[in-house]
Write a structure and sequence with these properties.
Two copies of one chain form a homodimer. By secondary structure, the first copy, chain A, is α+β, with helices and mostly antiparallel strands. Chain A has nine helices and eight strands. The first copy, chain A, is globular and about 55 Å long. The first copy, chain A, starts with a helix and ends with a helix. Chain A binds a DNA duplex (30 and 30 nucleotides) through residues 145-146, 165-167, 175-182, 184-185.
Chain lengths: 191, 191
Amino acid sequence: MLFHFKDKFPQLTPYWDKYLEFQKRVEVTAKTVLLGEGKISGHYIFVEKGCLRAAFNNNGNDKTVQFFFEKDGLTSFESFLKNTPSLFTIETIEPSIIYLLPKTHVNNLMAELSREPDFLNIILEVSAERQLHYMHEFVSFIRDTPEQRYQNLLNEKPHIIQRVPQHYIASYLGISRVHLSRIKSSLARKK
Amino acid sequence: MLFHFKDKFPQLTPYWDKYLEFQKRVEVTAKTVLLGEGKISGHYIFVEKGCLRAAFNNNGNDKTVQFFFEKDGLTSFESFLKNTPSLFTIETIEPSIIYLLPKTHVNNLMAELSREPDFLNIILEVSAERQLHYMHEFVSFIRDTPEQRYQNLLNEKPHIIQRVPQHYIASYLGISRVHLSRIKSSLARKK
DNA sequence: CGCATTCGGTAACATTTGTTATCGCTTGTA
DNA sequence: TACAAGCGATAACAAATGTTACCGAATGCG
């Protein structure tokens, strides 16, 4: 779940701030697991500083699903919503500063927010955005070659490529580390 | 946008029925285009009988994104929401009976629905479902081989494989028609 | 009926991608 | 400092997948 509540919906700032006191600030090293695959998500996670990824283990192969950076908020959506074991591990890539808001408070916050007249529209907008995000990823797999997918990432989200170790990006693109390396050198040759 | 309003949320039936009179019933042959790629979506589409697909043209290659059957409701979500050109064509696969509800009425219906106390939760549930649908498709591309994706489809949505021409399924799986044919005969040999 | 069109199977060959192994560079740490 | 571990480039080979072409069956239509 990817919210940018404060920046995108300033009218909600008072709500958000009210729950600041319930957030637990933690500083963690790189590769710290914030939520293990199979565990039930119990917090909303807000990235103050650093960089995280959501990933899962597939027969010993580590597969990255998404990256998160400063000001991103997230949970393992399905797990958080339905109280089911998380399909993903959430772990830091860099040393990071994280705020954790326990689920009970998230629920209270939601209940309060639902009285805000704009809330329905905000929810619709946020939901639509997330839906379109995954839809575009999905369509890209049907439509594009791995090389094109890498170029798209380079054009649309260069910060990911700059900040994230390459083998994570390879698994995110659905290809092997070796092949991503080949794609890069092939693109360098073309120029 | 995939709603099963009537079946899943019986409390909304009166609203739905009230707008029945504004729906236009059409009977169309196979391969009828209901919404062209690049056009702006102006209707909510409900499938009474038959089978549709959403697809797009990629350098002359036809790529299928999703299939729809009886009781599915749909629009080109992004186009409908933002009044932007649709990324997808929506067309019939079989001769079909379709109900079309013009956008203005959809908006009115939404406005009325938003007064229903359950509506926020319903919207959340529907949105979450759709988000998870696309997320699972996306994860499947990262995780699974084409052969596994075909088997998943066979296990989870056999009606698609039974009803839809094979070359549409191939493009939906992100592979060539020839390769899907290979996968099928390889699976047949294994058994 | 006869014909064109659509659809799916198969083969041969080309290209892409994965796997394994090796190397060098960097970084963290004992 | 020295050593191990992580990371990325590259090569050689294997496997997966795409492309093109051809065939035959089914279907729709004159």
